[in-house]
Amino acid sequence: ISMSNSIQGVYQGSFMPLNEIRVSPLSRAYTFSDSIYEVIPYYSGKPLCLDEHIDRFKLSADFLKIDLDFSVVRKEIEQLGRSVENHTNAYVYYQISRGVDSVRSHIVKEKLIPERFGYAGEVTLSTDPIIAKLNQDNRWAHCNIKTTSLLGNVLNMNDAYSDGCNETILIRDNKIVEGGACNIFMTYENQIYTPSLEENILPGVTREFFISSLQKRNINVKQVDCPVSFLDSVSTIWFTSSTRGVQPIKSILNHGYEMDPNDALFRNAKEAFTNSIRDYFQDH
Ligand code: PDD
Prior knowledge:
Layout lengths: L7 E4 L2 E4 L10 H4 L3 E9 L2 E2 L2 H15 L5 H13 L6 E9 L17 E8 L7 E7 L14 H12 L4 E6 L2 E5 L3 E6 L2 E5 L9 H12 L4 E4 L9 E8 L3 E8 L11 H20 L1
Parallel strand pairs: 7-8, 7-14, 11-12
Antiparallel strand pairs: 1-2, 1-6, 3-4, 3-5, 5-6, 8-9, 10-11, 10-13, 13-14
């Protein structure tokens, strides 16, 4: 039974069930993954940090030199969001490609109409600890751009999954980078660390929201290079993302790390995050 006939979608401004949307194989999203996207989390029908997601979307569009009216994008995201207002946790996926070619061509010679596609789905947020696998980060150099060109992420995440893990931890030059689809934090010597933002890390909206939740409660986060050797003595490692929230890592398949179940700093940090979400929705 297909779930997708009950999932609301939108393509080029037309709203319809997701499984009725038809796209051209000459979409540059299809031939080149010449496209960008956002995933916006919804809590009981309300978006968390929609402005921040739109801002990052605009940065991605600027990077790809795709020009379009984001007030239209925003309205469509909001309308998709209304289709999941009865769910505790949901998300809107929204993708923009450069457009549809008349024949495949790397070089864009004529002005194309950007292609807009989105849908709203349900998600289950879990704070159950998961198992991760360390992999070498073999992705391209611009992981700060939220493009759908995610082959490096996809291959590493599926490699981890085929070994029974839920996520990968990417390592480059002996430094911890991020997960396959989330940012990473850790408690080390009773301080919270996260890798500082470089071109090879996606500046997560949840990462930023989480850091400011902690700052409001006078918990400092060190944004610095995090060498792999940290893993030998960390207490807790956790991921943040729009669809995972804050999710601890129980163990690492190819490393001796085991989560410390009595890590008070992590417990406080998680509580600060939950409280900040509550506060956010009192103001929005
Ligand atoms: N992924 N790093 C990567 C590589 C990601 O793909 C994501 C999000 C994040 C966290 O970003 P944010 O907090 O803004 O969700 C970090 C989304 C959820 C996805 O691809 O489905």
